[in-house]
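Standup notes
- DV: blocked on the single-chain target, sequence here:
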Amino acid sequence: MVIGVPKEIKPAENRIAIVPGGVETLVQRGHKVLIEKGAGIGSGFSDIEFIKAGAKIINNHEELLSKSELLLKVKEPLPNEYKFLRQGQILFTYLHLAASEDLTLNLIKRKIIGIAYETVQTEDGFLPLLAPMSEIAGRMAPLEGAKYLEETYGGRGVLLSGVAGVPPANVVILGGGNVGYNAARIALGMGASATLLDINPIKLRMFDEIFQGRVTTMIADNYNIRMVASYADLLICAVLIPGAKAPRLITRKILKTMRQGAVIVDVSIDQGGCAETSRPTTHSEPIYKEEGIIHYAVSNMPGAVPRTSTRALTLNTLPYVLEIAEKGWENAVMENHALSKGVNLVEGKITHQAVAEALNLKYTPLKEVLKEYTQAQSIY
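- DV (later): unblocked, structure below
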């Protein structure tokens, strides 16, 4: 199979979808790997390293996109890349379709096979390809929030840890998944007063035991969310419903009750954000103010630490890449339940129910599509 790895063109995105060791493994299995010139530099990998691993370096972005049978990326295609995608091409990346109708419709139009890292899911509910980036984003969230709490950036001028005789900042975390857990760890380690809310009482009980009562846990109902938002210095949105839009838990009305100069770090922004006032930002312009509240909503937070995040991501994606390349995507998803959950699009049809519901578009179960697809392929 011809596997293409382009240079990411999203602003300040320095990750790459494969490392030289992964290239070597694929080439040894008989696959051809195309790497765009300079694609790995931001993550610390030179073209020479990829060449030594057996890859072919392609100078032209458009050429690489059009030649690849399996396209490995980190982030979703941007509008100027759409025209180079073709029917039957496999796109394996973070797609976050529920947050972008334009992207979804364009990929439907081009009839690609869209497999999303973020919805690959094991039977116990674990998201193996989202987890490493969630871990990184969760650990970054208190660090970024602490910076923008500084008066220099228009924040409240509060030190997250406080000092002797002065209380620490109040950090509120909405969501007890991978992001929320890691955010709580770092916030606690920085000396902040941390409160974590989730809808699952069993999960809250677990966190209470893990943190030995040092993190306040609360049920995430509307009353509690309104209450904690009013005293938060830093509010971290860490809510995830796999494949679906994030619920809007922080309305503008709630925002108006927050302390002036408080900071919202909306890690849920890839799925639309959990604050009504959130909109995607970039690493070059990461913040803006609404109702006197600083919003940090960078949609590719781990892109700021590519030497860490690229290794963490590719360590987990490579086994799935091998399955797709070795067996073909149809057999791979039929044999691997977790990978089948990652299939969002198949040649013009939405095969992930949460995506279809979020965009009010028609949903077709993957089993039906696979049956039709394999019959068509056998006739062909």
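- Follow-up: The mean pLDDT is 95.
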